[in-house]
């Protein structure tokens, strides 16, 4: 007889163990059950969601254009489709205050995910590009307390948007990272830079697994590993590439009446079989 709570704790522990500086966890981000199954089938040790990809496929804009309920239903579908651990991009927490962030984390656990990304760039508040570090630390502490209260060692990946928002450099990033780690974060995610010198300095000065966001033009994962990175993700990059194919194929069909952009697609039987095997 299975024990869902024990299984969730085991997946959370397994996910934590994958964050090794110099031997990074590679995460091709997914946005629905089918993309998650494809990522798992390709050999990924875990699946990370992309908030942008999830929002787009559900007909909303990124930046908390989705409410918590719709966003977490997508996480439930993704976690239910794969056997590997799932970590959820919950943007800035889908909540106005720390208590609400705690509620979101409890919903994440109920959805079957064992990790979260929480960013310090607020959405729709009319404030600055980043929340004050102390205020963000309170939100991270609420996430930590909610997970601890549920008895699940949730991996809290605190996103620092200094580089992404042009709101600071290495020193500012390290200062924020320290505050978030003291509040209970387990890892630090710094999107917006893949400059080798910057990444190496961040990895050396942040006392936690460092996650960077890569894409076309970034150093290969092996080079990022050598710089001390513990996690490499691609955000909405794969979703953007998939949607670009939709537009190319649609325009070709409508403008030229031809079908070349569809060449190389997955066989119907292959994709159908993958989904039939979803847990």
TrEMBL record:
UniProt-listed InterPro entries: ICL/PEPM, Pyrv/PenolPyrv_kinase-like_dom, Pyrv_kinase-like_dom_sf
GO molecular function: lyase activity
Pfam families recorded: PEP_mutase (PF13714)
PANTHER family: CARBOXYPHOSPHONOENOLPYRUVATE PHOSPHONOMUTASE-LIKE PROTEIN (AFU_ORTHOLOGUE AFUA_5G07230) (PTHR42905:SF16), PHOSPHOENOLPYRUVATE CARBOXYLASE (PTHR42905)
Keywords: Lyase
Gene3D superfamilies, sorted: 6.10.250.2750, Phosphoenolpyruvate-binding domains
Name of the protein described by the UniProt record: Isocitrate lyase/phosphoenolpyruvate mutase family protein
């Amino acid at each position: 007889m299975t024990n869902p709570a024990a299984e969730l704790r085991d997946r959370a522990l397994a996910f934590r163990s994958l964050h090794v500086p110099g031997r990074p966890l590679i995460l091709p981000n997914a946005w629905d059950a089918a993309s998650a199954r494809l990522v798992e089938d390709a050999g990924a040790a875990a699946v990370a969601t992309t908030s942008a990809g999830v929002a787009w496929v559900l007909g909303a804009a990124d930046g908390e254009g989705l409410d918590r309920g719709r966003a977490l239903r997508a996480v439930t579908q993704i976690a239910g489709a794969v056997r590997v651990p799932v970590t959820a991009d919950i943007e800035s927490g889908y909540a106005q205050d720390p208590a609400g962030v705690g509620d979101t984390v409890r919903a994440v656990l109920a959805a079957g995910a064992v990790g979260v990304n929480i960013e310090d760039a607020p959405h729709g508040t009319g404030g600055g590009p980043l929340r004050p570090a102390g205020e963000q630390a309170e939100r991270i502490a609420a996430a930590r307390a909610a997970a601890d209260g549920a008895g699940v060692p949730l991996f809290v990946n605190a996103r620092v948007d200094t580089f992404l928002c042009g709101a600071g450099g290495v020193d500012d990033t390290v200062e924020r990272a320290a505050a978030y780690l003291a509040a209970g974060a387990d890892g630090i995610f710094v999107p917006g830079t893949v400059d080798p010198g910057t990444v190496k300095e961040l990895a050396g000065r942040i006392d936690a697994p460092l996650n960077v966001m890569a894409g076309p033009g970034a150093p290969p994962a092996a080079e990022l590993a050598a710089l001390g990175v513990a996690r490499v993700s691609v955000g909405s990059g794969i979703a953007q590439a998939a949607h670009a194919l939709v537009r190319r194929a649609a325009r070709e069909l409508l403008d030229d009446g031809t079908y070349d952009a569809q060449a190389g697609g997955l066989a119907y039987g292959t994709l159908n079989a993958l989904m039939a095997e979803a847990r």
